[in-house]
Amino acid sequence: MANKTNNYNYPDKNGRFGSFGGRYVSETLISALEELESLYKKIKNDKKFQEELTNDLQTFVGRPSPLYFAKRWTDKLNGAKVFLKREDLNHTGAHKINNTVGQVLLAKKMGKKRIIAETGAGQHGVATAAVCARHGIECIIFMGSEDIQRQAQNVYRMKLMGAEVCPVSSGTSTLKDAMNEAMRDWVSYIDDTHYIIGSVAGPHPYPMIVRDFNSIVGTELKKQSKILFGKYPDKIVACVGGGSNAMGIFYPFIKDKEVDLIGVEAAGSGLSSGKHAAPLSDGSPGVLHGMKTYLMQNSDGQILGTHSVSAGLDYPGVGPEHSFLKDMGRVHYEAATDKEALKAFHDLSRIEGIMPALETSHALAWVSKNAKKLKKSDIVVVNLSGRGDKDMQSVAKADGINF
Amino acid sequence: MGRIKDSFERARNQESKTLITYYVAGDNNINFSKKVFLKLLSHADIIEIGVPFSDPMAEGSVIQRSHERALSSDITFSKILSLVKELRIHNQDKPIVLMGYMNNFLSQGENLFKKIKKAGVDGLIIVDLPYEESEFFYNKLKDIDLDLIRLISPTTPKKTIEKIVKFSSGFLYYVSFRGVTGAKLSNFKEVQDKVKYIKSKTKIPVVVGFGIKEGEIAQKMSKISDGVVVGSRLIDIIQQKNFRLNDSLKFLEKSLKTFKRDVRKK
């Protein structure tokens, strides 16, 4: 592992992270993916592009996000010191906008007139709608009809910002089906449309692009922790659905082996119940949505339905780079149940006055469970990937409260 | 590689182009689909058996629903292979091709190739097979005399076409437009030019699929290529008859006879 970590330079020229990743799509999409890849490589280091991006991140998103010491929670946990990287304070309330701000600039450079995106909980949809409104670009969001019911407020947010929301009622009517439908739309309008995938998932170059745009989180954390602690954190914890917030905060630290990286999946009703969304903990490698990665599937290769209290983690796959990092042992992946996540949600709300997204609450649950076992001098940073306002309905329902 | 090659030759000898049909195994249950395939075997030149997938990304709504119905009838890969074996009892001449998605084929492991050969399959179409893995599949299939049929689309650059044809056999499947199965064809001239270009680069027959809904299009397309693939339209026909077996088969036969006439040289 040591050697692999030192020379970490992925994806390779075929878009692979070891055996994971790749480009498993129908032939019609290949040339659009190649165009996107070559444009991205060209302008990634372009000074003017970087200036434009930085300006948007500062003035539209509100970066840098603060690194906050959760003192009262730390005292209660009576273990390691816990810090929160406050991505919940970003415009639109989550890390998702780091990616959409960058991708919309790419789309403009390619001369695309129409943006499409998939969304589960609606956070990526809202972040896409916001940047499209800001740039005056047509925006269509695909969302499972199941999720449209569960996340009515986010649907309305997207519409207020001028996006069209297309219900998807095929398959399980959730995130994975919204992604299928977005791909189908993209194939049909490939000449003038750019597809903004919301996670480090999908065919190459998406896992790389989405990771790179989100890695501003880890890059900021490096600077902030040097100033605040004089060293890097001992542990960094993030929740993993598709895995974009986790890749964003992990990636700049991959070569810094002294930093433990922990990804937390959704264990739903428990890993042994089968009702979960934890392909890394309890899945097997396969191909879905254009990538080879760990999946929840049966022995015939059919994708299984998932369960999690948080819509954003309710996905049967995971970004291919996470699969690679799991197998090489650089990141440790664990899982937290619905119950544990809900408890962490309540704890942070009550003790720190911060309502985390239910997705993020899975990472917090890991800290609740493990902080005691760590040294008091240890520094743990949690990527507080999103705020919990969108989850009021789900939390109230779990608590047996009707509005 | 016998049966596929023979079928194109046979069509040529009859001054016709090749009629290829697609239907999904297990729609709307395994026995129903068996009856449909038997009908297709007696009228079409090549039959494609769709392997249903939970997430068929390249399909339009008609074929998506078909995959969903098949999966809810508890179809499995091994049941599909048994189905092929049964079809082979009735028909030994016509090519049977499996068409599906990577994940279902991968799930069978290295035994996939031997198993499909033994069942009587003649070739594979893997919708989401990436270019860099095509050589591996091509060689594995070639070793046991099976064909790897590749798709080419309107957005495929010329230099990529040259690479694709290198690891293809049986026939090449030209996707007639940018879109999913069952949508409407828009640009005939583009298809004509692209098929002509492909044919200048290879001796492998080139067929046109996606959007072959009516006789007129089938006729036009078969004039400029070696054959056509009809899929969504056939499922549509059966759906219209509410999957009542006898009505469906009767209606299907009528439609196949018309398509067969349409692909005949004028």
Strand content of chain B: 5-15%
Cα radius of gyration of chain B in angstroms? 17 Å
Radius of gyration of chain A: 19 Å
Largest interface, C-beta within 8 A = A-B, 36 and 45 residues
The quaternary structure here is: heterodimer
* SS-derived structural category of chain A: alpha/beta
The average pLDDT of chain A is: 96
Q: Tell me the span between the first and last alpha carbons of chain A.
A: 52 Å
User: Would you report the number of β strands of chain A?
Assistant: 14
Largest sheet of chain B: 8 strands, parallel, barrel
Described by the principal axes of the CA atoms, the overall outline of chain B is globular
Helix content of chain B: 40-55%
User: How much is the average pLDDT of chain B?
Assistant: 95
Q: Which strand order does the major sheet of chain B show?
A: 1-2-3-4-5-6-7-8
Fold and architecture overview:
The complex is a heterodimer of chains A (403) and B (266). In chain A, 44% of the residues lie in helices and 18% in strands. In chain A, strand 1 and strand 2 form a beta hairpin. Chain A contains 17 helices and 14 strands. In chain A, helix 3 packs across helix 5, helix 5 crosses helix 6 and helix 5 crosses helix 10. With 403 residues, chain A is α/β, with parallel strands linked by helices. In chain A, the strands form four sheets. Chain A has a six-stranded mixed beta sheet with strand order 3-4-14-9-10-13, with helices on both faces. Chain A has a four-stranded parallel beta sheet with strand order 7-6-5-8, with helices on both faces. Chain B is an alpha/beta fold. Helices cover 52% and strands 15% of the residues of chain B. Chain B has twelve helices and eight strands. In chain B, helix 8 links the parallel strand 5 and strand 6. The longest helix of chain B has 18 residues.
